[in-house]
Amino acid sequence: MIKFYQVLGLIIAIGFSSCIKDNNPSRPAYVYIENVFFEADTMLGQGSSSSNITDVWVSVDGQVLGANTFPALFPVILDENFQTNSVRVSAGIKDNGITNTRTIYPFYDPYIETLKLEPGKTDTFRPTLHYPSNANVILVEDFEDPNQPIFTDELDGNPNTEMITQMDEVFEGNYSGALVLDSANLDCTVGTSTRYYNLRDISATSVYLEMDFKTNTPFQVGIIAHYGPSDTEVLYKGGVNATTSWKKIYFNLTQEVFGSNATEYSVIIRALKYVDIEQPEIYVDNIKILHF
Asked: I need a labelling partner for 268 at 20 to 30 A (CA). Which of 5, 85, 117, 279 fits?
């Protein structure tokens, strides 16, 4: 009987001490991400600094804190073994413009800062990210040289539909591109006259196409895989919906490029005339291909 109460007392003591410990948890530090910016290196020919970073992914000392939209506040339970703390901030995007496919964009280098976080204190970050040094940034078309258009490959068989360089509706700079079609010309499909190679280098892991756009009607974007002089395959990646303001989209072409195993690729854009859109207005700018 005595042993029973001794054991019972020990159990109660352990439970009581556990409750005391649980009621006095460590105070967290806080990492507050107000916003994340991007800056291209114009000296390296990387083009526009336009971006559409929708959320932020954060880790501290290798501990993943999760992802959230801006502004984002992350509590951090500090490890006493670390004298300083490494905060890592990565930019998130909507892959192919789809809300439920949010992911870390591989072509924005993460921001890393070493500092001393303190319990109960909030540290605020507004990092500016850049393209990685090992990324190949191909400026397909920014439309700033109207005398050297790139989308000159007419693929719909109609000379009345084309991509033109214009200055009536511009995202930035002096010019942007516009697809021309109307009630008499229902299909505008154009490709780049320039072909791009080495996109699927043996060490490559990702291929993306970036683009700014404004349109009152949906249109499609993809690539043409060139296997030989007369052997090609059109691979549409996806499309965009109508928007009253300029937006940025990131198309993940990794599967299409590695799956096709072609020697060269070109970019293709296609728009159709829908009966409920009296006058299609399709504008694009800052089209880039990026690969490692």
From this structure: 279
Residue 26 binned pLDDT confidence (cut-offs 50, 70, 90): confident
Structure tokens at 26: 């460590």
Alpha-carbon gap, residue 168 to 244, rounded angstroms: 15
Distance CA 66, CA 33 (A): 12
Q: Give the dihedral sign, CA 223/224/227/228.
A: negative
pTM: 0.89
pLDDT tens for residues 233-290? 999 999 999 999 999 999 999 999 999 989 999 999 999 999 999 999 999 999 999 9
Per residue in 154-199, pLDDT (tens digit) is 999 999 999 999 999 999 999 999 999 988 999 999 999 999 998 9
Q: Are 76 and 28 in contact (CB under 8 A)?
A: yes
Q: Please tell me whether residue 100 adopts helix, strand or coil conformation.
A: helix
The fold of the 136-291 domain, in CATH, is Jelly Rolls (2.60.120)
* Beta strands 128-129 and 37-38, pairing class: parallel
Report domain extents, the chain. Answer: 25-129, 136-291
Fold topology of 25-129: Immunoglobulin-like (2.60.40)
Cα separation, 185 vs 206, whole angstroms: 37
Residues sharing a CB contact under 8 Å with residue 151, sequence separation 6 or more, in sequence order? 141, 163, 177, 190, 191, 192, 193, 267, 269
